[in-house]
UniProtKB/TrEMBL annotation:
Residue ranges of every copy of the Mop domain listed in the record: 2-67
A Pfam family matched in the record: TOBE
Record InterPro entries: Mo/tungstate-bd_C_term_dom, Mop_domain, Transp-assoc_OB_typ1
Organism of derivation: Shinella kummerowiae
Name the record gives this protein: Transporter
Keyword presence, Cell division: no
Keyword field contains Nucleus: no
GO aspect biological process, one term: molybdate ion transport
SUPFAM superfamilies named in the record: MOP-like (SSF50331)
Annotated keywords: Molybdenum
Length: 69
């Protein structure tokens, strides 16, 4: 994975909560939980699930989720 954002934190997904259109993905990074609000489509496209390793990618006030291909 290559990305321009400097603030990427590797952790483990502990929970994925799907809403009507937006999901909340909770990632444990060294004992701290970071929550990202992303679309349900993004969750499906990335195949996100609890127990999977992922990155919390922080840019300004937003948190995105990234995975290794």
């Amino acid at each position: 994975m290559k990305i321009s954002a400097r603030n990427r934190l590797k952790g483990k997904i502990v929970e994925v909560i799907l809403g009507a259109t937006t999901a909340h993905v909770r990632i444990d990074v060294g004992g701290s939980i970071i929550t990202a609000a992303i679309t349900n489509d993004a969750v499906n496209d990335l195949g996100l699930a609890a127990g999977q390793e992922a990155y919390a990618v922080i840019k300004a006030s937003d948190v995105m989720v990234a995975i290794d291909d």
